Amino acid sequence: MTEEDWRLPIINYLQYPILPYEKRIRITTLNYLMWNGDLVRKSKDELLLRCMGKKEYMKVMGEVHEGICGAHQGGRKTCWLIRRYGYFWPTMMKDCIEYSKGCEACQRHGPIQQAPSIPMSPVVKPWLFRGWATDLIGKIYPASSKQHCFIIVATDYFTKWVEAKPVKFTTSQEIIIFIK
Hints:
This protein is α+β, with helices and mostly antiparallel strands. It has helices at about 10-15, 25-30, 55-65, 75-85, 90-100, 105-110, 170-180, and strands spanning about 30-35, 40, 50, 85-90, 130-140, 150-155, 160-165. The strands form two sheets. A four-stranded mixed β-sheet has the order 1-2-3-4.
């Protein structure tokens, strides 16, 4: 299965502009030109970026992300660096983000928590037994000697008192008995 090169319609239009082409291709081609046999894109800051096919840009992404001078930057920074080095393809940002997310070294050695930390807000209750947190743990394998597979746990918010009871089944009747 060969994937069609995204550059072909643009190159064809630039080489043979008199043939009938779709309006989308005619408009898109305004940002491109042929220079020394290569397709280049004019960037917003007037730089010429060399357009690349899939094989080429996979190699460039690998070099920039994890090559000899690569620092295992995130996807956005990798994309920024590739543009700075003078390369372009339409799906750069998406491809760079996917590449950096799939990098095994980044997954092994990168930060564990990526979400911003927020201060914890304690649950304050004014007196004993005013509020409880209840949870069900299970199914536990293997079951205990008495065939208990679940544990019902309740904690008082004020005193942090914990009550736990092993149960065989998680029926509403078992939960009601535990709470009473």
